[in-house]
Amino acid sequence: MAKICITTDCVCDLPDAMLKKYDIDLVYFYIETDTGRFKDVDEITADNVFDYFRSGGSRIFTEAPPADELAAFFTEKLSKYDEVIHISISEKISNSVGNARSAKEKLGELGKRVHIVDSGHLSTGIGHMVLRAAEMVQNGAAVEKIVSEAEAMRMKISTSFMAYNADYLYRNDKVSKTVHQICTVFNIHPVLGMKDGYLKLKSFHIGKYEKCAVRYVRKELKNHERINKKRLFITHAGGTVSDIKLARSEVSRIAKFDEVIVTKASATISGNSGPRTFGLLYIEE
Q1: Spans of all domains in the chain
Q2: pLDDT by residue (tens digit) across 39-72?
């Protein structure tokens, strides 16, 4: 039986305990500011990004790991494993998949043992796919079966977030100037979701943040009978204790999941959404 390694991008936002439990290894994105270039997770956090902007920083630039770095990473993994399945952030919002494919080509014959999967998602939307793949590895599934199931999951994963405001989204060209102005004037909290591999403006909630957070949860879970109850992620960027408590409470009131896991978003994800952003990420039946 082939020895298979599951790898993914650090923007999967999975907790360390889960990464260790399933022997999942990460490749790291880079974040560049006017103070330097930093490796996400290892050298910079969401809180560091928020502090940077609060102290007058204007913009950050995020970069997927380059092909040469990925080639070295895959080579090291193949010295210990027979096959590598790498599950990446959506190729329509990042060049991570393209770089991984270039790395695979650089490896020649060795590259045939590397299998690249475009998750079509970000954050713990990727995480759901990665965990399923890792569970299949533990159950002895073949590479082809794991890749096929991962690709089939793409359309079943729901990835969405509600931002506190549109400031960071506008700063990083995720919404227009007009949308930003309207959100500011009318106290609108934008909701973004993944669709067809793109991160798109999905809806709005107007008014006090706490009430909007409850409405967001209710709307996302309104068809909860069609949701797989095994696992739900509440993933946040700089959420307060009361924010997370409120979200968990409303989730529990609506539906009973085997696991409700709270995770912190990486600096790459957080830098595009801003503090007090949170999302519900789950798998549909």
Answers
A1: 4-29+64-153, 157-283
A2: 999 899 999 999 999 999 878 899 999 999 999 9
